[in-house]
Amino acid sequence: MTSGTVSSVSTNEIRVAAAQVNTTVGDIDGNAHLIEKWIKLSQDQQAELVAFPELTITGYPPEDLVLYDNFIAANKIALHRIAAKVENIVALVGFVDSEDGKLFNSAAVLHQGKIVTKYRKIHLPNYGVFDERRYFTPGEECPIISINGIKVGINICEDIWEPIGPAEIQSAAGAQIIINLNSSPYELGKHRHREKIVSDLSRRNHVYTLYTNQIGGQDELVFDGGSMLVDPDGKLMGSSTRFEESLLVADIKTDPKKKSLPRQQNYRVSNKTLAEVRKSLTVEIPTTKP
To answer: Which segments cross the bilayer (predicted)?
Structure first.
């Protein structure tokens, strides 16, 4: 995992955006241009952070396309090309990472022309329409990024559906905001279930949760969006119109006193795990305010 530390200006407010976009599986160049367009739209709204859906660059689900080395290479080249253009905003972009012959469903943190760090999806669904374990290797780390002193935990889709997952580890280590990148397909009534999952997670861990989902279709799958922001009390602060591309923008005022959750609320999170997250995996990003 890439990490580093730079100076920052501390504040407890941040403007975030969820880019609910319609990607096309396999169209790496088209998806890259789409990402660049919505980063610019987010900057026009003075957002300091914008989150895109799961596997934004490749489209979801890429399936057997990820078995081709040239496809993986092209998606990485596109990521670096996007990163080079990112200034004065933090962008969270989904892509396929690779290392030692293994593939990872990943999210990159882009800022000031660089890939600052990465997150690799830990919980890979392998039921119904999902067969991610066929292609991907689970990640092992739960990094936190610090933006102007505000700690943000990043994870991907299925990771928040687990009772004790990366979000619990990150919030226990002091994360004030959880950002979850998704490609969650439509089912009748599923958007209400998603809202409950996100609400319960936010309330349980006393964090804001920004949930971003894609729209569009791929083969038999239809994606309905429904991106949302939920506050630490589990209340819905805002949501995107379903089945439409949109940019959800919201201002978050965090609690600067939050350090970590009471230990009894994180009974499965070891002190060693918390220490690793706090000391080794926290990446500080300088101010992005204009």
So the answer is: none
> Is residue 34 a part of any domain in this protein?
yes
- Residue 104 · residue 69 · CB < 8 Å: no
pLDDT at 258: 62
243 CB burial (10 A radius; 0-12, 13-18, 19+):
middle
Over residues 109-130, the pLDDT tens digits come to: 999 999 999 999 999 998 877 8
Task: Tell me the per-residue pLDDT of 170-184, one tens digit each, with 9 for 90 and over.
Answer: 999 999 999 999 999
Please write down the long-range contacts of 127-135, taking CB distance under 8 Å and 24 or more positions apart.
129/61, 129/185, 129/220, 129/221, 130/61, 130/158, 131/63, 132/61, 132/105, 135/62, 135/63, 135/66, 135/67, 135/103
CATH code: domain of residue 112: 3.60.110.10
d(CA 224, CA 246): 12
Structural domain includes residue 237:
yes
Give the residue numbers spanning the domain of 138.
Answer: 13-285
What residues are labeled active site?
54, 121, 157
